[in-house]
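Quick one, probably user error.
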């Protein structure tokens, strides 16, 4: 059995902590058994390891999220990278074609697809294991997991089986109902309907044959070239709703989609993260990523969140409306985690002559390094403010420490490695302050040292 974890989305529902680069699954607001903060993706990956499924899993994600995943799960985590975001049908197609044409997986192999961020107990993933046998035994094209509802939710879709469940065995699916009214949801529950948690399984041959019928390439490299031509549509609409032979496995344990501030704060161990004070308030949470204190006084049932991307003050019950309010914000991410550490945008200015100036505070974790790179259209000035490291510049490596100022003209090859946790202020000035103006020469520091004409001091 192979698992595909879908990691996508822009994370607007949990703005301002989430953005295009840091979706909800990367927010470190939950706690592990040691009392340390962890993200949803760290929690789920750990649970897969607990039940012996991590070695069978890959994460399908966009280029923008690769650094974040490697930062939180390690550089060796298996990843399938979408050339661009195209919704869940193209992402699942790409993963399936990768299994088929690159890994040479047998067409009879069962593939299970699930979100990367469900909030569940470990035994939910034991139920995921049962999908393999269900697909093979039932002869169905698709097998789903349906959660037994605990209340008539209007936020979830429902799977309506052909009959009520009497045990843990699979049932044939009659139809689906998307986000009904509370009254309709109650009726559906009486009929034995289950919450649709976005988990489904199929034999690899089912998807490969479907792609062939649609004229979609089944060779990985060719599909990458044509990826932008694939329909931007969900797997539910493109495949599930058009498939007749579907069964569902009931799951009677705890399951929650932490997709809004209202649901996320219910699972947070602490009511406050970051600098600030909550006083004379009930059921209020404060998450502050800024270095300025935030005081919340006499405001109950609220979420207050502050980050470099913005500030939110919202009644928890109304927080599900955030996405539609901020959807039109056209702003680059002001905070990102990368494989080597993090950066925070401090200031952005556009000059009258067309040049731009971006000031960042950059943190590199001890032992990690920025790639050895160059730029055609910008100059950079780095002011080291914390820690010690090694700076590579046009073939020479030298030590750096707080107080050092490093000037990097356009065309100069440069990189830096942190010996201890390292921070510096970077000022970029140029006409194209974009990712495309980064020419990466070497990714590892070993390559930098091997190709340097000077000895590291």
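Nope, works fine. Designed sequence:
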């Amino acid at each position: 059995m192979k698992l595909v974890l879908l990691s996508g989305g822009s994370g607007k529902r949990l703005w301002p902590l989430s953005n295009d680069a840091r979706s909800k699954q990367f927010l470190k607001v939950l706690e592990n058994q040691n009392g340390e903060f962890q993200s949803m993706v760290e929690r789920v990956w750990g649970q897969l390891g607990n039940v012996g499924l991590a070695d069978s899993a890959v994460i399908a994600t966009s280029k923008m999220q690769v650094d974040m995943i490697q930062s939180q799960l390690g550089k060796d985590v298996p990843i399938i990278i979408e050339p661009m975001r195209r919704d869940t049908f193209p992402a699942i197609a790409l993963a399936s074609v990768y299994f088929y044409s690159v890994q040479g997986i047998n067409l009879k192999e069962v593939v299970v697809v699930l979100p990367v961020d469900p909030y569940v107990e470990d035994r939910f993933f034991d139920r995921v294991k049962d999908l393999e046998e269900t697909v093979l035994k039932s002869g169905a094209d698709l097998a789903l997991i349906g959660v037994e509802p605990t209340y008539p939710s209007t936020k979830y879709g429902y799977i309506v089986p052909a009959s009520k469940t009497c045990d843990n065995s699979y049932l044939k699916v009659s139809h689906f109902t998307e986000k009904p009214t509370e009254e309709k949801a109650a009726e559906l529950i009486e009929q034995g309907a289950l919450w649709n948690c976005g988990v489904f399984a199929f034999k690899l041959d089912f998807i490969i044959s479907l792609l062939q019928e649609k004229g979609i390439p089944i060779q990985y490299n060719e599909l990458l070239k044509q990826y932008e031509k694939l329909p931007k549509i969900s797997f539910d609409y493109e495949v599930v709703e058009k498939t007749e032979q579907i069964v569902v496995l009931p799951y009677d344990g705890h399951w929650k989609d932490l997709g809004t501030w209202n649901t996320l704060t219910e699972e947070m161990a602490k009511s406050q993260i970051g600098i600030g004070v909550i006083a004379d308030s009930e059921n209020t949470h404060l998450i502050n990523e800024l270095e300025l204190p935030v005081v919340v006084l006499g405001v109950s049932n609220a979420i207050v969140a502050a980050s470099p991307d913005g500030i939110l003050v919202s009644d928890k019950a109304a927080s599900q409306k955030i996405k539609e309010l901020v959807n039109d914000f056209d702003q680059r991410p002001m905070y990102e985690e990368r494989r080597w550490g993090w950066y925070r945008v401090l200031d952005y200015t556009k000059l009258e002559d067309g040049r731009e100036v971006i000031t960042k505070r950059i943190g590199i974790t001890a032992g990690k390094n920025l790639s050895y790179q160059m730029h055609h259209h910008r100059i950079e000035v780095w002011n080291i403010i914390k820690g010690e490291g090694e700076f590579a510049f046009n073939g020479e490596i030298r030590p750096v420490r707080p107080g050092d100022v490093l000037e990097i003209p356009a065309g100069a090859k440069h990189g830096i490695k942190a010996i201890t946790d390292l921070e510096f202020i970077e000022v970029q000035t140029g006409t194209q302050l974009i990712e495309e103006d980064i020419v990466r020469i070497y990714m590892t520091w070993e390559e930098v040292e091997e190709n340097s004409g000077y000895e590291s001091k």
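Residues 97 and 218 are 5 Å apart (CA to CA).
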